[in-house]
Amino acid sequence: MKSEKQILNFGKKIIKEEILSIQKVQRNLNLNFSKAVNLINNTKGNIVFTGVGKSKLILEKTCGTFSSLGISSYILDANQASHGGLGSLQKNDTLIIASNSGNTNELISILKFAKKYKIKIIGISSNSKSQLSKNSDINIIYPKIKEAGDKNFSLVPTSTTTILTCIGDALAITVAKKRNFKISKFGEHHPHGSIGKSLTPIKELLITGNKIPYVNKDVYFSKILSVISSKRLGCVLVKEKKAKKLSIITDGDTARAASKFSNLQKLKAGDIMTKNPTFVDEMMLAPEALNLMNKKRITVLLVKSKGKFRGLVNIHSIIQFMNK
User: Fold this and answer.
1) Angle at 119 between CA 70 and CA 82, to 5 degrees
2) What values do phi and psi take at 71, rounded to 5?
3) Eight-state DSSP code of residue 152
4) What domains does the chain contain, in order, with CATH numbers?
5) Measuring CA to CA, which residue among 220, 227, 205, 213 is closest to residue 287?
6) Residues linked to residue 207 through DSSP beta bridges, in sequence order
7) pLDDT digits (tens, 9 = 90+) for 182-225
8) Can you tell me the distance from the alpha carbon of 177 to that of 94, in angstroms, rounded to the nearest whole number?
9) How far apart are the first and last CA of the chain?
10) Which own/partner contact pairs does 35-41 have at CB distance under 8 Å and 24+ positions apart?
11) What φ, ψ does residue 187 adopt, rounded to 5°?
């Protein structure tokens, strides 16, 4: 391959071959997949992943996905299993073992231990007659897959590791779906960095208590300006005792009032307040709140939980949090 076009075409060919392998596995997936999902979902202990070589590396990624979704899991090193590692396995765990051939020597001691202590096994393999398949409670058998590339690459794990990644992802996401997983939970497992920030509910950014500026609807315009200026939130909330409702006056409202009314000294909060301001639930994610404020062209959202007012968030605090 000398030209850049030849290089590009070969790269595309590799990707196409792996896509075809995934499609082949998808077509052959059967109800054993559903049984595996139900077993994982009902497991009281840990989901324990083990494999050898490239399979182990892929399962490490799958294990990470399970953990990030709140499914308790860890990796068992197959090479260390017979040297004390098996002691970490418990009867209420479920083993997920992946091996393309299903006859990897390092897995035999793990299979024997699991069968002896009646630990459930989910086997992932291309060989329905292998030791792994014979000793597994549930088998996910995928068809024989040709590795991507020409004959010079036939022994290099490419398509087989790709399909193992897909099967692992399918198991993880399906179990999470069955457990009614919410994206906010993902944020709890990723508290730092951009992921954690994007999955932070606004209840974590609430302005509450005496930090919230309040006035009643009979206060005059000068007082409104004074409160907005002192609290530095760009708004005041207006309490209506009889109706038990909250209205809002923003600095934008005061600017519009100044250009509309000539006698500002007699202007009261009730004359310029916005009734029925936008309320959102405290579990709304920070980026969603930011998008809503931009869409509505407002700078403040009132936050409630179970129908009760909890506090407010303003656009500046969310932007500052996201850019920290």
Assistant:
1) 100
2) -100, 110
3) G
4) 4-181 (3.40.50.10490), 202-322 (3.10.580.10)
5) 205
6) 312
7) 765 555 555 555 666 777 888 888 999 888 889 988 889 989 99
8) 19
9) 47
10) 35/138, 36/122, 36/138, 36/140, 36/171, 37/171, 37/174, 37/175, 37/178, 39/94, 39/120, 39/122, 39/137, 39/138, 40/71, 40/94, 40/96, 40/122, 40/171, 40/175, 41/175, 41/178, 41/179
11) -65, -35
**How far apart are the C-alpha atoms of 67 and 289, rounded to whole Å?**
28
Beta bridge partners of 51: 98
What distances in angstroms separate CA 206 from CA 1, 172, 235, 259, one per listed residue? 60, 33, 15, 32
Please, which pLDDT band fits residue 80 given cuts at 50, 70 and 90?
confident
Residue type, 24: K
As a whole number, mean pLDDT of residues 126-142 equals: 94
> What's at 5, amino acid-wise?
K
Query: Which of 68, 82, 74 is CA-nearest to residue 110?
Result: 82
C-alpha 41/C-alpha 180 separation (Å) is 11
Q: Which of 223, 231, 310 is nearest to 272 (CA)?
A: 223
Extended strands (E) in 131-275: 138-141, 214-216, 235-240, 245-250
Three-state SS across 194-226?
HHHHHCCEHHHHCECHHHCCEEECCCEHHHHHH
Q: How sure is the predictor about 67, in pLDDT bands with cuts at 50, 70 and 90?
A: confident
With beta carbons less than 8 A apart as the criterion, state whether 84 and 115 touch. Answer: no
Handedness of CA 173, 178, 183, 188 (dihedral sign): negative
Q: Report the distance separating Cα 215 and Cα 234, nearest Å.
A: 14
Q: Residue 82 has which token pair?
A: 């017979």
Residue 145 CB: number of other CB atoms within 10 A?
22
Write down the pLDDT at residue 196.
64
Evaluate whether 293 touches 301 at the Cβ level (below 8 Å). Answer: yes
> Which is nearest to 205 in space by CA: 308, 295, 319?
319
